[in-house]
């Protein structure tokens, strides 16, 4: 309950903050021009692709801003604008004058009193894409006159029908002429919100997406991390169309590619929500894959002259797909994971509202805002979702770590209990009671702990916990084998020890040299002796792998009528000088000697810096 309340409070705060940010971004207040700044809101225009301004007859008077989709529908090419102004009165006559153009799509060249003074880039295909860039043009003082200055602007643009977004259709905003120091502030502000901020947010989104993809790769069962990572990277890549001015292909090709890319974005969004809600469907995946083919095919069939209509239809369809998936995800989350509902509902609601508002703008239902809200708000939503996913993922890791600690403690408790029970039974020397107790413990371990450990091995999502459970299961099986009391042929035991030792040393790139008696061995080894000897040999091999730095290990077995000997020798660095005389400390040597003593045997350690370590185990038969 506390978690749900905290999530709800966080969701409310997040929703309020996002609404405030979007409101500030979407607002486009009309501000009066500063003192000393002239606003030119009328010009005469003529459609012409000439590189020089033609005679302005026949010309038409237009009001700025001039939206080509309204004043010259379906026109594709160049438009010349002419307007005139007188220098405003200024306190300082030596102040630089400038022309501020809030929007000229797709590119513009400026002429002052018959001289070209500015060009935004290529005016021929592929035309520079400056639709989102404001322009600040310094007016040379040598060309300015106190009265009757003539501004000629050549705007190269595209018809609305030939672009996939209304914001990239041809047009020219109102013009402002005034002191450069005054207009530079407006220019910097508009450049930041239109371009720089989107660049910054997209960079952050790309980094977060890369992190998500890496986490998804490391944790394959959390596929939603990888889907969201690729979704974030894909959106960041699509955003480059806002600030990259010079594209390698002409407008028709670039618009086709960017529109097609949204099919992948929509598919990744749907797959992320389905995967995150454990709702993945093969039929949906097949339909999304088919959409990747149908969308570009339909754009090609419609042709460049109908790109906007076809792209708008596809945008609306993909928005409906994502909206339906969001609704399904929220319904399932409400029933299954109530604590995740509030935060994700807030983020997804704002995200979907932003997308729907953008679609309404594309259909001409609303005026386009001066700031690209969609390109700024969607990455912020993605960053919010990324923060939530990382929070949930970190919490899962904490739970897994707590489970691992509990499992380790439980294994240690069970192992200690087994050792205590065995010691008590050995002291009683009552064979019947000992046999009965051994069978009970072995059955309990096999039926209860063994089954639970096996379940953890096959169901745990953490590789570390699965590995630990698998090791605990092997240790438990060894303990059960010792408790059953059934003796084992020494030849079989040697074969098992050899296989395990050679495998472990080989995996550590240590050459193993194992030699056993060639003659047939008929001796039997008590079950307890097999278990303890196995543990001593495992500890010796572990010390060689972890501490010795050896490249070669020799194992020799000697068998007589009354005793069995096992010698393990490595060519490593030996035991350091500071441990000289203290060989019972560290590296499990005390445990090895204690186990040998329990079997009325002995374990000797010989070592010195520089010539390796020799462990000699002798046990009675």
Summarize the model shown.
This protein has 621 residues and is an alpha+beta fold.
Query: Uncertain spans, ≥5 residues at pLDDT below 50?
Result: 1-31
* Biggest sheet layout: 6 strands, antiparallel
Rg from alpha-carbon coordinates: 39 Å
**CATH fold topology of the largest domain:** Rhopdopsin 7-helix transmembrane proteins
Describe this structure in words.
- The chain is an alpha+beta fold and 621 residues long.
- It folds into four domains: 2-24 and 191-398, Rhopdopsin 7-helix transmembrane proteins; 38-189, Jelly Rolls; 400-486, no CATH class; 487-621, Histidine kinase-like ATPase, C-terminal domain (Heat Shock Protein 90), CATH 3.30.565.10.
- Helices cover 55% and strands 16% of the residues.
- It contains 14 helices and 20 strands.
- The protein has helices spanning 2-26, 68-71, 180-218, 223-238, 251-276, 282-302, 307-336, 338-362, 373-428, 431-459, 463-483, 490-507, 527-548, 589-598, and strands spanning 38-40, 42-47, 60-63, 66-67, 77-85, 97-101, 104-105, 107-112, 115-119, 135-139, 149-157, 171-172, 175-179, 488-489, 511-515, 524-525, 552-559, 563-570, 602-607, 613-620.
- The strands form five sheets. A six-stranded antiparallel beta sheet has the order 3-2-5-11-8-9, with no helix packed on it. A five-stranded mixed beta sheet has the order 15-17-18-20-19. A four-stranded antiparallel beta sheet has the order 1-13-6-10.
- Strand 19 and strand 20 (613-620) form a beta hairpin.
- The longest helix is centred in the middle third of the chain and has 56 residues, at 373-428.
- The protein is elongated, with a radius of gyration of 39 Å.
- Residues 1-31 have low confidence and may be disordered.
């Amino acid at each position: 309950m506390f978690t749900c309340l905290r999530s709800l409070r966080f969701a409310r705060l997040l929703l309020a903050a996002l609404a405030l940010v979007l409101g500030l971004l979407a607002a486009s207040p009309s501000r009066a021009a500063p003192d000393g700044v002239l606003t030119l809101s009328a010009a005469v225009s003529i459609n012409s692709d000439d590189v020089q301004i033609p005679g302005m007859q026949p010309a038409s008077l237009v009001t700025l801003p001039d939206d080509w989709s309204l004043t010259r529908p379906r026109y594709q090419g160049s438009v010349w604008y002419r307007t005139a102004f007188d220098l405003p009165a200024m306190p300082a006559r030596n102040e630089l004058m400038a022309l501020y153009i809030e929007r000229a799509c797709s590119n513009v060249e400026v002429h002052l009193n018959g001289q070209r003074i500015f060009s935004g880039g290529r005016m021929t295909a592929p035309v520079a894409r400056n639709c989102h860039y404001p322009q600040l043009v310094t007016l040379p003082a040598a060309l300015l006159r106190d009265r009757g200055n003539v501004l000629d602007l050549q705007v190269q643009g595209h018809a609305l029908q030939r672009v996939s977004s209304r914001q990239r259709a041809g047009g020219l905003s109102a013009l402002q002429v005034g002191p450069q120091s005054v207009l530079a502030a407006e220019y910097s502000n508009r450049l930041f919100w239109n371009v720089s901020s989107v660049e910054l947010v997209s960079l952050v989104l790309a980094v977060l997406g890369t992190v998500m993809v890496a986490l998804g790769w490391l944790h394959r069962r959390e596929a939603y991390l990888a889907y969201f990572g690729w979704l974030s990277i894909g959106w960041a890549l699509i955003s480059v169309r806002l600030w990259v001015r010079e594209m390698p292909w002409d407008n028709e090709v670039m618009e086709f590619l960017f529109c097609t890319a949204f099919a992948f974005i929509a598919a990744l969004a749907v797959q992320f929500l389905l995967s995150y809600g454990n709702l993945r469907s093969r039929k949906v995946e097949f339909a999304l894959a088919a959409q990747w083919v149908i969308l570009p095919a339909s754009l090609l069939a419609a042709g460049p002259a109908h790109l906007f209509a076809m792209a708008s239809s596809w945008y609306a369809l993909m928005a409906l797909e994502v909206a339906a998936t969001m609704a399904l995800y929220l319904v399932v989350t409400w029933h299954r994971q109530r604590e995740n509902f509030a935060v994700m509902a807030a983020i997804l609601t704002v995200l979907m509202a932003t997308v729907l508002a953008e679609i309404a703008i594309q259909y001409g239902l609303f005026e386009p805002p001066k700031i690209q809200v969609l390109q700024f708000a969607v990455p912020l939503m993605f960053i919010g979702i990324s923060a939530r996913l990382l929070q949930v993922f970190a919490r899962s890791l904490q739970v897994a770590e707590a489970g691992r600690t509990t499992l380790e403690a439980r294994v240690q408790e069970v192992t200690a209990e087994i050792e205590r029970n065995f010691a008590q039974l050995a002291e009683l020397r009552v064979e019947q009671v000992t046999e009965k107790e051994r069978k009970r413990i072995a059955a309990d371990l096999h039926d209860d702990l063994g089954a639970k450990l096996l379940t953890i091995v096959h169901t745990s999502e953490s590789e570390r916990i699965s590995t630990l459970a698998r090791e605990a299961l092997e240790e438990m099986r060894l303990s059960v084998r010792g408790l059953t009391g059934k003796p084992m042929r020494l030849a079989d035991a040697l074969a098992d020890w050899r296989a395990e030792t050679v495998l472990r040393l080989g995996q550590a790139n240590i050459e193993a040299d194992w030699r056993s008696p060639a003659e047939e061995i008929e001796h039997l080894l008590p079950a307890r002796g097999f278990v303890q000897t196995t543990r001593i040999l495992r500890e010796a091999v572990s010390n060689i792998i972890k501490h010795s730095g050896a490249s070669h290990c020799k194992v020799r077995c000697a068998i007589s009528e009354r005793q069995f000997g096992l010698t393990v020798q490595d060519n490593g660095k030996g035991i350091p000088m500071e441990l000289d005389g203290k060989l019972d400390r560290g590296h499990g040597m005390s445990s090895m000697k204690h186990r040998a003593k329990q079997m009325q045997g002995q374990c000797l350690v010989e070592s010195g810096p520089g010539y390796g370590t020799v462990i000699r185990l002798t046990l009675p038969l």
